[in-house]
């Protein structure tokens, strides 16, 4: 599955948040979206997910206009993890995973009527959730909630995964394990991840897209990006390039 933004523009008040943006996410690669605050990263992901409608341009899903696809079908194919996940109910982690598995299905879900589905053991293990399954979300730390939320989206086995800063609340170990998992998922799915840490993107991405004022300043391989001054110009910083075990590492100064 391929999800594409074609010449998409969107305004908030007088501000042009997305400016004729072209962006594509395809199966078989992990695409990382980076850029300074206010560059349009979260907005672009929301438009892809169907949370926001563009003012101009088109959202295409496998070449079909997204507005011709029913919300149920779209939910089956696209999993979206927002930057600040909030549950309207104080669910257990087990119930949250079950809800994620039922997304886009005909099962339905109401509080107190959890779908009788076996939890995927690999997802539970990948996100280190076994000790948390029967705990309520309100009792979890921010990092634990973030892991549970990401696992719930992945449990639904979407063709396309859109995740907005899934590593932001995680400690270093879980940041690395989450990016490794997303890299593995990208072999079978289309995966787009907004990443705050540029070095995580350089290490794990197959493709990096740099947003600047609502437009793509760069789209290509991490090694190619590291050889340019695009990040220096977009972030208005001078990055020092260092040789790391997995490629170039940037140090801002």
Major beta sheet, strand line-up: 6-7-8-3-9-10
Q: What's the CATH topology label? A: Rossmann fold
**How many beta-strand runs?**
12
Largest sheet: 6 strands, mixed
Query: How large, in whole angstroms, is the Cα Rg?
Result: 18 Å
* CA(first)-CA(last) distance: 40 Å
Query: Beta fraction of the residues?
Result: 25-35%
State the domain count.
1
Q: Name the shape in a single word.
A: globular
Classification by helices and strands: alpha/beta
Name of the level-1 CATH class:
Alpha Beta
CATH superfamily: P-loop containing nucleotide triphosphate hydrolases
H and E order: EEEHEEHEHHHEHEHEEHHEE
Q: Percent of residues in helical segments?
A: 25-40%
Unreliable spans: none
Task: Give average pLDDT, whole number.
Answer: 90
**Discrete helix count:** 9
CATH architecture: 3-Layer(aba) Sandwich
Give your account of this protein's structure.
The chain has 253 residues and is α/β, with parallel strands linked by helices. The chain has a single domain, classed as P-loop containing nucleotide triphosphate hydrolases (Rossmann fold, 3-Layer(aba) Sandwich), CATH 3.40.50. It is 31% helix and 29% strand. It has 9 helices and 12 strands. It has a 6-stranded mixed sheet, sandwiched between helices. Strands 2-1-4-5 form a 4-stranded antiparallel sheet, with helices on one face. A two-stranded antiparallel sheet has the order 11-12. Helix 3 (93-102) packs parallel to helix 5 (142-155).
What topology does this entry show?
Layout: E1 2-12, E2 15-26, E3 30-34, H1 41-49, E4 56-61, E5 64-65, H2 71-77, E6 78-81, H3 93-102, H4 121-126, H5 142-155, E7 160-164, H6 172-185, E8 190-194, H7 198-204, E9 207-212, E10 215-220, H8 222-226, H9 230-235, E11 239-244, E12 247-252
Parallel strand pairs: 3-8, 3-9, 6-7, 7-8
Antiparallel strand pairs: 1-2, 1-4, 4-5, 9-10, 11-12
